[in-house]
Amino acid sequence: MTMVDSATHSVSGISASVPETLSMAQAINRALGDAMQEDERVLMFGEDVGALGGVFRITDGLTERFGDKRCFDTPLAESGIVGMAVGMAMNGMRPVVEMQFDAFAYPAFEQVVSHVAKMANRTQGAVRLPIVIRIPYGGGIGGVEHHCDSSEAYYAHTPGLTVVAPATPSDAYGLMREAIAFPDPVVFLEPKKLYWSKESVDLTAPVPPIGRAVVRRAGTDATLICYGTSVPVALEAAEAAESEGRSLQVVDMRSITPFDDETVCAAVESTGRAVVIAEASGFASVASEISARISERCFHSLASPVKRVTGFDIPFAPPKLERYHLPSVNRILDAVDDLQWED
Amino acid sequence: MRPDVAIGELSERAMLPSEHPVCLIDENGRPQPDRRYALPSAEQLVAGYRGMVIGRRINDQCSALVRQGRLAVYPSSHGQEACQLASVLALGDEDWLFPTYRDTIAVMARGVDLLETMVLLRGTWHSGYDPTKYRVAPQATPLATQLLHAVGVAHAATLQGQKTVVLALCGDGATSEGDFHEALNFAAVFNAPVVFLVQNNQYAISVPLHRQTKAPSLAHKAIGYGMPGVRVDGNDFAALQAVVTEAISSARAGQGPTLVEAHTYRIEAHTNADDAARYRDQSEVTEWIPKDPLIRMKTYLTDAGLLDSDLQKLIEHEANEQAAVLRHGLNKDVELDPAVLFEHVYSVPTPQLREQAALLADELEREDAQ
Ligand SMILES: Cc1ncc(C[n+]2csc(CCOP(=O)(O)OP(=O)(O)O)c2C)c(N)n1
Ligand SMILES: [Mg+2]
Question: CATH topology for A20-201?
């Protein structure tokens, strides 16, 4: 592909180092296109990813650009999609598959937990599966039931799966490129409410690798730990707290598995207080895991028990009630207030 | 009925669908002779027409209400009203309906209150009616999953000596899901009194039928499970009513399940959120317009002397009234108590849920105080 449609494509078709304003959706689309351009073993398939370009347009233009052998629609069956990806990966390809929405990945659960996650282990490393399972996840879009689940705990609980959740366009691009090149299967959770959030991105600038968390905002009084959908809410809460005279640090996990204990502990030790924020129901969740790890590792630096602000332990709320269910700035600030400031 | 064959001994021929879809009233409104199926009674045909006119009006009203922001989403069955009505009018009070998100008109035709039906798409709850009261399962979104529930209700009916038959709806795309195949297999193996009606509207969002199957038709799948498959013109209410009624009586008589494939077309985009221009030519849609289920029925009934302008006006008036009920109901903002979020997760709320409910109540109290 030559430089026809935008200055952001080099002659080879790969994104070049010109900072540009991109939404997260565009950034992921760019990552897929660049990876397919660089490595012909990379394939994209799923439901409506061809002519339509995906219901969120993440695969927009890929079939046109690479042909329908590289980006194609399958019959409507998630177990089929993931199962076929396993076989294709066994035979030298690098499939990226799209699950249309979080809850519609459940028919593929058997393939994901019994095969995708375990193949390398079962075969003593002889067969590794470089598969990326893309899942638009989370609420905040006024979606009806089965369209707003935060299902990360199921995947994070499954040994063998690498689980990432970007919160910015740059990270979405960088983490997707790394996920596609990764030797092991990656569950790539795309916060759908952030698909349209924009930022100026230099696609060639490296981002920290899978397995690293980053400090998104410096602060000294308490640490907010978040990932994916909850990052912008945490940042907003930190902003609000500042006007009330409290300095909050924000850590974006980015990668749930592997988990970056080092960055989290260093951050929490620097403030002595922590609140973990996630949209998923809190019971037996990723937020619980983070909270437990902090308690185990940073106990002597803690001035207060670790708090969690999560979705309630209910099926995701209907559109008209979701605002009560989702972690809000006020709920986060209430949790911060509870961090035993008196002593 | 298939009096020629005993249970479990359907001949292969009897399981294969006919070469052409069954059609009793063609797209020009002319009756077509059929060796096997008789035209439903005049009364049934008028009832079907009435229901389709109301259904069309409600479909279009709901599409407008989405644009006005009164509904979260609306998957319209505009053009599929014959399937919506025939499926329901063939059912008895003791029977069950298992609808999908696209089957709002079928749910309403079954007698479910209009506003209770719209709860899901309005976004005030996940389902708004009592399934046991109407014998209508909640509209299912996870594709094909409801088909197994339908088999379960049907098999439980058999075990308990009830005469109940279950009608389960799904789309062409859903036939690719594993659950579709498991449901057909279970139904056949248990000889369950269930009728599967696939509304083949040619698309699963953007994906055309030929990407779902290589089979000569979806109805051909039936023989693989050991049940009859029937193809029917999905825009011909008369044919649908005849075929579904026969399949239901057969199931009720203990002769097991049937797979019915209705050939129809999704005239509108998948939902309001979809842009069909990205994957199909408008000319394809235009081709289907003359095959509209309402037009042919109107022609037939008028020619047969069963419909005059007075009756037409009466039906249209009724359709407008129902649309008005819907409009007024949906234009009112509902006061929702967020405390309902914690109800019915468990029969008895867990201690944790009670804590969370209290936390939210406290938040709201403070919000009010401000
Ligand atoms: C298990 C599952 N996967 C994906 C979806 C997303 N989805 C909703 S409707 C649809 C297309 C269904 O097509 P079809 O069965 O033909 O029914 P139609 O919408 O045409 O009535 C898809 C892919 C879903 N609801 N459930
Ligand atoms: Mg369809």
Answer: Rossmann fold (3.40.50)
ipTM value of the model?
A: 0.96
CA of B198 to the centre of ligand 2 (A): 9
Catalytic, B13? Answer: no
d(CA B364, CA B201): 46
Question: Please, where are the H alpha helices in chain B?
Answer: 12-15, 42-67, 81-89, 104-109, 114-117, 119-122, 131-134, 145-159, 178-189, 221-225, 237-252, 282-288, 293-303, 309-331, 351-369
Cα A13 to chain center, whole Å?
26
Where in chain A do CATH 3.40.50.970 domains reside?
20-201
How far does residue B2's CA lie from ligand 2's centre (Å)? 30
**CB–CB contact A146 B141 (8 Å):** yes
| pLDDT per residue as tens, chain B (370 positions) | 444 445 456 788 889 999 999 999 999 999 999 999 999 999 999 999 999 999 999 999 999 999 999 999 999 999 999 999 998 999 999 999 999 999 999 999 999 999 999 999 999 999 999 999 999 999 999 999 999 999 999 999 999 999 999 999 999 999 999 999 999 999 999 999 999 999 999 999 999 999 999 999 999 999 999 999 999 999 999 999 999 999 999 999 999 999 999 999 999 999 999 999 999 999 999 999 999 999 999 999 999 999 999 999 999 999 999 999 999 999 999 999 999 999 999 999 999 999 999 999 999 999 999 8
CA distances from B26 to B32, B246, B296 (A): 7, 20, 7
CATH 3.40.50.920, chain A: domain bounds: 214-338
Give the fold, CATH level 3, of A214-338. Answer: Rossmann fold (3.40.50)
Is the shortest distance between the CB of B141 and ligand 1 below 6 Å?
yes
Partners of A149 on chain B (C-beta within 8 Å) are none
Q: Residue A57's CB: how many other CB atoms inside 10 A?
A: 18
Q: Which of B143, B169, B211, B268 to mutate to test the pocket of ligand 1 (most atoms within 8 A of CB)?
A: B143
What CA–CA distance (Å, rounded) separates B18 from B212? 21
Residue of A146, A312, A333 for testing the chain B interface, max B β-carbons within 10 Å? A312
Q: Confirm or reject contact between A314 and chain B (CB < 8 A).
A: yes
SS3 label, residue A189: strand
Residue type, position A101, single letter:
F
Let me know: does A310 contact A282? Beta carbons within 8 Å: yes
3-class DSSP assignment, residue A320: helix
Dihedral, CA of residue B17, residue B18, residue B19 and residue B25, to nearest 10: -120
Three-state SS string over A121-156 comes to HHCCCCCCCCCEEEEEECCCCCCCCCCCCCCHHHHH
Which residues of B, range 118-147, sit inside 8 Å of A by Cβ?
120-126, 141-143
Q: Which residue in chain B has the smallest CA separation from A315?
A: B345
Find tokens 């197994």 and name the residue: B148
The 10s digit of each residue's pLDDT in B226-270 is 999 999 999 999 999 999 999 999 999 999 999 999 999 999 999
Q: Which of B70, B231, B252, B266 is catalytic?
A: B266
Distance from the A326 Cα atom to the nearest Cα atom in chain B, whole angstroms = 11
Chain A CB within 8 Å of residue B204 CB: yes
Residue of A nearest to B277 (CA): A52
